[in-house]
């Protein structure tokens, strides 16, 4: 679906397609345990979270140089633009790279190289969001933040991702305070597999402005009332929720109920190379499986721009919103 939209929940490492993985493996002399792109493509049909994470981290071995990260981001931006994405706020996981010896500066500057030229090359404006792995220690997150200080002019916000249960937001209070003091915006994954209490903690302890996923908020009516009152954006990723078994099928997804409740919901693709679709595919999939009309789809697209970190360019936001309003299905 080509309606203009912003992508607000997108892990750049989750956009690595088998063809690019093989090309980078060859360029860097990395051996992949797959004979062909077809065999690798089959491995992408994993059955659970652990097999997804195993593959996800194994493939990162092919990303080594600034050019690799620039190529990864550029390939994503080309695909996104072809599916109507006009603005992309891109997550990256520095610890997944520094842990295997790739300097943080290589990652940030490589990604920034592609993001800087995205408006001209793809017609897409961008922001970069640095995420901490919540199954790593709070100290590791703080060390990562300190290492990123020379690059903070490239980074708009911090986020929190990876395995949620057992790693409540409050564990990362200190690094979020440091990020706030440095003038960064704050988001966090919460209420994907973790309980509604984690959503409250992300808001109250970390001071986040958006909740990534947040679908389990629906179990807590008081929390829903608060999220509606404050119009806290939730970056929902239905294809990811199905693949990782947070919901059984797309038809069971709470997206329509979330919209009915008045929540500020946006639609996103999370790790599109692994979860079966980019932003436009996601709009198509929910439109096909859920009782959503054109008004709902337009509202989701409008919300994505309203929730975007475009406060420093309200003119651009207004232009994008006008494009949504002018769109014909
Ligand atoms: Zn995510």
Automatic annotation (TrEMBL):
GO CC, any one term: cytosol
Cofactor comment: Binds 1 zinc ion per subunit.
Catalytic activity: adenine + H2O + H(+) = hypoxanthine + NH4(+)
Cofactor: Zn(2+)
Domain of life of the organism encoding this protein: Bacteria
Site feature Important for catalytic activity, where: 213
GO MF annotation: an example: zinc ion binding
Entry keyword set: Hydrolase, Metal-binding, Nucleotide metabolism, Zinc
Top-tier EC class: hydrolase
Its EC number(s): 3.5.4.2
Residues that coordinate or bind substrate: 271
Single GO BP term: nucleotide metabolic process
Pfam family, one: A_deaminase
Binding sites annotated in the UniProt record for Zn(2+): 9, 11, 189, 270
Keyword S-adenosyl-L-methionine: no
Active-site residue list: 192 (proton donor)
Residue ranges occupied by any Adenosine deaminase domain in the UniProt entry: 4-316
PANTHER family: ADENINE DEAMINASE
HAMAP family: Adenine_deaminase
Function of the protein: Catalyzes the hydrolytic deamination of adenine to hypoxanthine. Plays an important role in the purine salvage pathway and in nitrogen catabolism.
Family: Belongs to the metallo-dependent hydrolases superfamily. Adenosine and AMP deaminases family. Adenine deaminase type 2 subfamily.
Identification of the protein by name: Adenine deaminase
């Amino acid at each position: 679906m080509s309606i203009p939209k912003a992508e607000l929940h997108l892990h750049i490492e989750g956009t690595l397609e088998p063809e690019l993985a093989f090309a980078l493996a060859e360029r860097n002399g990395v051996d992949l345990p797959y004979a062909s792109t077809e065999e690798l493509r089959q491995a992408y049909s994993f059955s659970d979270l652990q097999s997804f994470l195993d593959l996800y981290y194994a493939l990162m071995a092919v990303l080594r140089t600034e050019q690799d990260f620039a190529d990864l981001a550029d390939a994503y931006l080309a695909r996104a633009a072809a599916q109507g994405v006009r603005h992309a706020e891109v997550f990256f996981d520095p610890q997944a790279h520094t842990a295997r010896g790739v300097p943080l500066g290589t990652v940030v500057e490589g990604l920034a190289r592609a993001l800087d030229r995205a408006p001209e090359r793809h017609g897409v404006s961008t922001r970069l969001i640095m995420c901490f792995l919540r199954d790593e220690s709070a100290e590791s997150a703080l060390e990562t933040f300190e290492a990123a200080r020379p690059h903070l002019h490239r980074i708009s916000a911090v986020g929190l991702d990876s395995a949620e249960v057992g790693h409540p937001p409050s564990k990362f209070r200190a690094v979020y305070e440091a990020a706030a003091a440095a003038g960064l915006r704050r988001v966090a994954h919460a209420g994907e597999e973790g309980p509604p209490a984690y959503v409250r903690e992300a808001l109250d302890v970390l001071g986040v402005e958006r909740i990534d996923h947040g679908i389990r908020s629906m179990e807590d009516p008081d929390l829903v009332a608060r999220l509606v009152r404050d119009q806290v954006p939730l970056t929902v990723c239905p294809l990811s929720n199905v693949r990782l078994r947070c919901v059984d099928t797309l038809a069971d997804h709470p997206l329509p109920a979330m919209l009915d409740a008045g929540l500020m919901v946006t639609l996103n693709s999370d790790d599109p190379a692994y979860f079966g679709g980019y932003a436009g595919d996601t709009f198509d999939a929910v439109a096909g499986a859920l009782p959503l009309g054109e008004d709902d789809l337009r509202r989701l697209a409008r919300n994505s721009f309203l929730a975007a970190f475009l406060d420093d360019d309200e003119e651009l936001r207004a232009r994008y919103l006008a494009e949504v309003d002018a769109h014909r299905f």
